[in-house]
What we know:
- The structure is a homodimer of 255-residue chains.
- Chain A is an alpha+beta fold and 255 residues long.
- Chain A contains 9 helices and 11 strands.
- Chain A has helices spanning 4-9, 17-28, 108-117, 119-145, 148-165, 180-187, 191-203, 219-226, 247-250, and strands at 31-34, 39-41, 50-55, 58-63, 69-75, 94-97, 101-106, 169-170, 173-175, 208-210, 213-215.
- In chain A, 44% of the residues are buried.
- The interface between A and B is large, with 49 and 49 residues.
- The structure holds a DNA duplex (30 and 30 nucleotides).
Amino acid sequence: MTCPLIRKLGQFTRLSGDDKRVLERVAGERVRQIGVHEDILHEGEKPRAINLILSGWAYRYKTLEDGRRQIIAFFLPGDLCDLNIYILREMDHSVGALTPVTLAELPRTLVDEITLNHPRVTQALWWDTLVNAAIQREWTVNLGQRAASERLAHLFCELFLRLRGVGLTQGDSCELPITQAELADATGLSAVHVNRTLQDLRVAGLIVLKGKTLTVPDLDALMQAALFNSNYLHLDRVGRHLDANDQELAAEPRA
Amino acid sequence: MTCPLIRKLGQFTRLSGDDKRVLERVAGERVRQIGVHEDILHEGEKPRAINLILSGWAYRYKTLEDGRRQIIAFFLPGDLCDLNIYILREMDHSVGALTPVTLAELPRTLVDEITLNHPRVTQALWWDTLVNAAIQREWTVNLGQRAASERLAHLFCELFLRLRGVGLTQGDSCELPITQAELADATGLSAVHVNRTLQDLRVAGLIVLKGKTLTVPDLDALMQAALFNSNYLHLDRVGRHLDANDQELAAEPRA
DNA sequence: CGGTCCCTTGACAGCCGTCAACTACCGTGG
DNA sequence: CCACGGTAGTTGACGGCTGTCAAGGGACCG
């Protein structure tokens, strides 16, 4: 399977073989393993490198003095934790692992080299940065305007589409290694209310959620229930229509 | 008065005379006037240039199909609307003017020139981008975890500090050209509840809000009521301690 | 002076949080 | 093998924060 970062960026632009080679090199740098519930980065630390999630799920969060916690974002395979973050003196939030995580630490020299020599990759990384900002904005809308069932439905739509973008869905199903308490912290609801709301969504036939697997029998219906508009994910790639006649590009190393 | 953008970036790094000259040139490009309640950018449009607010207040917002509206961010003088936004095919949100606004439209060529020839300015712009992302994250926390009075108090703290950063406070006061209905859309509350909550904050002596002027008699107290931690604004500039003995900075000891 | 926008107030309802107990599941170890 | 403990999920009772609806007041303006 191709590296999820390459797969994701391929949604924005068509990468050359050379581009892909650079990105593969990136994904091989300083690989680290993180255990479940361990922190990858902690608030107050000096950020050093940029972290690239190779496998597993992670999450960004902030804690208030009195213990309240908000999950601010989910990181899926192929996600980068903030390009150029090392410009800042210290982290203003933490990043933890939801599952065992494999990540690559990209030294800033490597990023600098890319900006100098690989303009197309640079642009794709900018696209990724802008999409992440858009996702964060959409979360603001989600928490500010949507009711409980809409919030959860919206989150599921987003995660499903993002996972599909990196090839981690199987038909209408995907993994969802998030506990109800974590869903609560991500949606600004209480765990009890998340539980009840999930039952509503199940009864409405909008989701099937068992174990750690989410199934979406009718994505359009779920999107409608969430007032979900996918435009903020910016998946409408330029030149996508050309891909049909473009088999030899797909004939890269794969299983 | 110096341009607010220069003033803001000066919070992060010490700009050389040359750096400032470039930024002044930037602020003089294609200046436009926008009337109150007019839109500067509209969802669905192709973004062309980067907008720099020279004077006045603007706001980013998204609307759901059924009319609910969320204000996602406030733009103050010196703020840029998304570096490199023109990479995206279309806007996923709108930007409107809260007051009459003067802005400069920066063509991408100018941005490209800066990245090539002015590394220090480039870094400062990255800092600005990262801080904006941090602000958006903090809004997520605000909407997800804080109660009504905390939310409003937090918003006031943030706006006050940001305005102070560009020299737009007078002592413990600043302008606040936001109606209660707009505060409601920014905090995810109803206008009625905003009204009542503002009264609570007034009674508690935390704010004085009359006309379009906000006074904060005791900023520390307000910050405490909001569980406000300013670290996300990243105001701790490297080398700040040197500034005291450094009156004529324009001379710039090392370029 | 009428109109509009903004702010304010009261009554009432409902979504959602809290508290607490209970079940289910799973891996561990006696 | 079963007891045990811990985590995750579920359920019920109850209350409160916040939303909705509706009406009225004040300031500004053409």
